[in-house]
Design a protein that fits this description.
The complex is a heterodimer of chains A (662) and B (156). By secondary structure, chain A is mainly α. Chain A has two domains: 110 residues, Rossmann fold (3-Layer(aba) Sandwich), CATH 3.40.50.2300; 411 residues, no CATH class. Chain A is built from 32 helices and five strands. In chain A, helix 5 links the parallel strand 3 and strand 4. In chain A, helix 12 packs across helix 13, helix 14 runs parallel beside helix 22 and helix 16 crosses helix 17. The radius of gyration of chain B is 18 Å and the shape is elongated. Chain B contains six helices and no strands. Chain B has a single domain, classed as Four Helix Bundle (Hemerythrin (Met), subunit A) (Up-down Bundle). Classes of the chains: A mainly alpha (662), B mainly alpha (156). The interface between A and B is large, with 36 and 42 residues.
């Protein structure tokens, strides 16, 4: 938390969260932007419809209102492409809002925002499950509507990403993963703000709707936490396998497992995590596989990447069939969760060293050697932080087999470097080069360029940045060249930082609130995903900005090939960051992504009251994060104050003027 | 002279509003509604509130019919009505009506018919009170506008 609090100018840096940049985009790009957004409002309640219409018009949106869901659906079908976003009530006599949501999602893939007076968790959950991109609780305030354009941009960005990478789902998937992480991060932050309150809220919610929640957070539940031992997890996995991952529902799994004391909720939450892991696994695999595809650069790079590709295939297979190795890897991660999630990669690693020395079955030895090296250089660091007892070498060993591309390849070196990086940047280079050389010798003696690519894949904690480079390179080869040695350093400087930061954040959060352990674990494991999520969000930002105004000059001089320029935006910022040495930018971003995406409507509520302008949004939020608990009384106060003030203020200026003019 | 009367009327209005806020009949959302009133829709508040009255009376009628039906069982439909009532009431800031709706819905979810009947009585009472007071408010406003010598087309 402390790390998150001191975020001075980071909000203005372009790689922070989408919130900041969107605010910035408003200013820098065009003041016009959200104006003219075409909104379809569907609500059977005419009163609300009228109010919403008025509010939306005041936001300068183009509003179409509709009091019947069927009419709305026809309208949407007839006039395809003439709406940007749909606001729909949940309960409507002719058609359930969820049904409409589903149809709209299927047929025209528009962002749909649900709204209802029913703000119970079960109802909101239902909306989310049906694919609503937001759920507004009535009474809806104007400030909430001001913000709905973000869903349009987000969606558009997703689509453009899909187009760019036809054939590989990686980016899309990564994006989703990013948002997943963001969600977790958001709940973590929510927790930080007042754990007692959150707990209470959840408890209330639970009492209200008898345990309909499927993704309960075991951390906040009042029941004793279930320890997922190896045996228990294996039982769980075999049950899932028996049912098939898609058909596995908590209730059936519970029946198949037949373990006394285990509740449906326990299984449900474990299943959810399990699914997330699978998703990430397959995401990693696809992404890695995607790199060679999108590479039009030198061929040797492809060859080089081939060595990574092997793992990809493994991982892919893993995601499909869940072989024991993968499961063990998953298990290792799941098990590691209770203690300190962010520690995991390092645990893997230290044990990995052993594993590799023993001669693992499927990983080339050079990996072991290269990773072993930095480890040896800073062994005390590692052992100091991380209790070794949690995972048996057996687990780790198998996880080594199953996770090489991810935890080994990426986390391994970076966390090592993190230790060193603080001391000496040059040393990093040395280590890296050493690694490169070793890899060169053992895998493929290729020109330096190929090395360039691989370290970036190895070092960068998020696959995203690896693929950024990959995406960039086809467009201009010299760009690739210019990154030749520098990017290695850049990334290595950056990634330890982001690792550090995630470590820091994670630890602080852990300290503050035990309950978020799981959430943490999920955004944190391997400490890849937080930075991953930040990367994807960053990309989002870039996209936003590009969509809004291509003229915006954030690409530091590097001109982008008409193809996904935002990508190089991000790179630009990366390298400029690293140019400043150990700039803490990425660290802050990391924090911000979590924060920003987590900012609930409560902040939107505060927004108009705050006297600061958009430029300061980042700071406002930074402050808000700190004062979050204070904010609420504030709101109350304002409410109260308003009772008095507007009463006297009402009908003032105009009428007075009239009186005097007469 | 004219201005003086207008001032007094405005003071009356403010007093009435303050009272309604104090009683919890209205809440902050009503102010939001008032803020939406601008030169493009000079009588937005009364327009919306009149729509609300029409809709609410329909809803109240439906609810009463549902409840008075001998072989009544459709609590789900009642829940939907109540949800709408809650939505519209909260949207105009009719705080007390909304609160009664919440209680009503809770009773209907427990299939508690006596509870529903009591809640309906209360709801009708609250609604009538709100309606009377808002009418009073609009009347004063109309007079005030007249006194100010500006003729807005108030209340269709």
């Amino acid at each position: 938390m402390a790390a998150l609090q001191k975020l001075p100018q980071s909000s203005t840096s372009m790689t922070s969260s989408s919130y900041v940049t969107s605010c910035k985009a408003d200013i820098v790009v065009s003041d016009q932007f959200p104006a003219g957004l075409r909104v379809l409002v569907v609500d059977d309640d005419v009163t609300c419809l009228r109010i919403l219409e008025k509010m939306l018009r005041r936001c300068l949106y183009l509003v179409t209102t509709c009091s019947q869901a069927t009419v709305a659906l026809n309208l949407l079908r007839e006039r395809k492409g003439s709406f940007d976003v749909v606001l729909s009530d949940v309960y409507m006599p002719d058609m359930d809002g969820f049904k409409l949501l589903e149809l709209v999602g299927l047929e025209m893939d528009l962002p749909v925002i649900m709204m209802s007076a029913d703000g119970r968790t079960s109802a909101v959950m239902k909306g989310i499950r049906h694919g609503a991109c937001d759920y507004l609780i009535k009474p809806i305030r104007e400030e909430e509507l001001k913000n709905i354009w973000q869903h349009v941009i987000r969606k558009k960005w997703n689509e453009s990403k899909e187009h760019e990478h036809s054939g590989s789902l990686d980016d899309n998937d990564r994006h989703k993963r990013g948002s997943d992480d963001a969600e977790y991060a958001s709940s973590v932050n929510e927790g930080t703000e007042g754990i007692v309150k959150t707990q209470k809220k959840r408890r209330d919610a639970k009492e209200e709707d008898d345990g309909e929640l499927e993704n309960e957070d075991p951390g906040t539940s009042k029941k004793p936490r279930v320890v997922w031992s190896v045996e228990l997890h294996q039982q769980f996995v075999s049950a899932v396998n028996q049912l098939g991952i898609d058909k596995a529902v908590p209730k059936r799994i519970l029946e198949l497992m037949n373990v006394p004391g285990l509740t449906r909720e326990n299984v449900a939450s474990h299943l959810q995590k399990f699914r997330l892991y699978l998703k990430r696994l397959s995401g990693v695999a696809q992404q890695q596989a995607g790199i060679p595809n999108s590479f039009c650069g030198p061929i040797e790079q492809n060859l080089k990447l081939g060595s990574l590709g092997r793992f990809d295939i493994q991982a892919l297979a893993a995601s499909g069939q869940i072989p024991p190795q993968t499961l063990a890897a998953l298990h290792a991660e799941l098990l590691g969760r209770p203690t300190s999630n962010l520690v995991l990669p390092a645990i893997d690693q230290s044990a990995l060293l052993q594993a590799s020395l023993q001669g693992p079955k499927c990983v080339p030895v050079d990996h072991g050697v290269t990773y072993g090296q930095p480890l040896i250089k800073c062994p005390s660091n590692m052992s100091k932080h991380f209790p070794q007892s949690i995972i048996s070498t057996e687990d780790v060993h198998s996880s080594f087999g199953a996770w090489p591309a991810n935890s080994l390849g990426i986390v391994g070196p970076t966390s090592n470097l993190a230790g060193l990086g603080a001391q000496n940047g040059n040393m990093l280079l040395g280590v890296l080069q050493h690694q490169q050389q070793q890899q060169k010798q053992s895998t493929m003696p290729e020109p330096s360029r190929s090395i360039n690519v691989q370290p970036s894949c190895l070092v960068v904690p998020s696959q995203s940045s690896a693929s950024f480079q990959a995406v960039n390179s086809p467009a201009s080869v010299n760009q690739n060249c210019s990154f030749n040695t520098i990017p290695v350093i850049d990334y290595s400087l950056l990634s330890p930082q982001s690792n550090n930061s995630s470590f820091g954040v994670g630890q602080v959060l852990d300290g503050d609130l035990k309950t978020t352990g799981v959430l943490n674990g999920y955004s944190g494991p391997g400490s890849n995903s937080p930075s991953m999520s930040s990367c994807s969000v960053n990309a989002d930002i870039g996209a936003n900005r590009q969509v809004q105004n291509p003229a915006q000059a954030f690409n530091t001089g590097r001109q982008l090939p008409g193809h996904l320029p935002n990508m190089s935006d991000i790179q630009g910022s990366y390298s400029s960051k690293s140019g400043q040495g150990l700039d803490q930018g990425p660290l802050r971003n990391l924090g911000f992504v979590g924060k920003r995406t987590s900012i609930p409507s409560r902040f939107a509520v505060d927004e108009p009251e705050s006297p600061m302008n958009n430029l300061n949004h980042g700071k406002i939020y930074g402050a808000n994060n700190v004062n979050k608990v204070k904010q609420e009384p504030n709101v109350d106060f304002i409410d109260n104050a308003k009772v008095g003030i507007p009463v006297s203020q009402h009908f003032t200026s105009n009428d007075l003027m009239n009186v005097f003019s007469e | 002279m004219l201005g003086f009367g207008e001032d007094r009327l405005r003071a009356d209005m403010n007093r009435l509003l303050a009272l309604l806020f104090h009683q919890g009949v209205l809440d902050e959302q009503f102010l939001q509604l008032q803020q939406l009133q601008d030169e493009t829709s000079p009588n937005f508040v009364s327009e919306v509130v009149n729509i609300y009255f029409q809709e609410s009376e329909k809803l109240l009628r439906n609810l009463r019919e549902l409840l008075l039906d001998r072989e009544f069982s459709d609590y789900k439909k009642m829940g939907i009505h109540l949800n709408q009532f809650m939505g519209s009431s909260s949207s105009i800031g009719a705080n007390r009506v909304r609160n009664v709706c919440v209680a009503f819905r809770a009773a209907s979810e427990q299939n508690n018919r006596p509870g529903c009947l009591r809640a309906l009585e209360l709801l009708e009472h609250e609604y009538c009170y709100l309606k009377n007071k808002l009418h009073e408010l609009f009347q004063i406003e109309q007079q005030r506008v007249l006194a100010a010598g500006v003729r807005y087309p108030m209340q269709n």
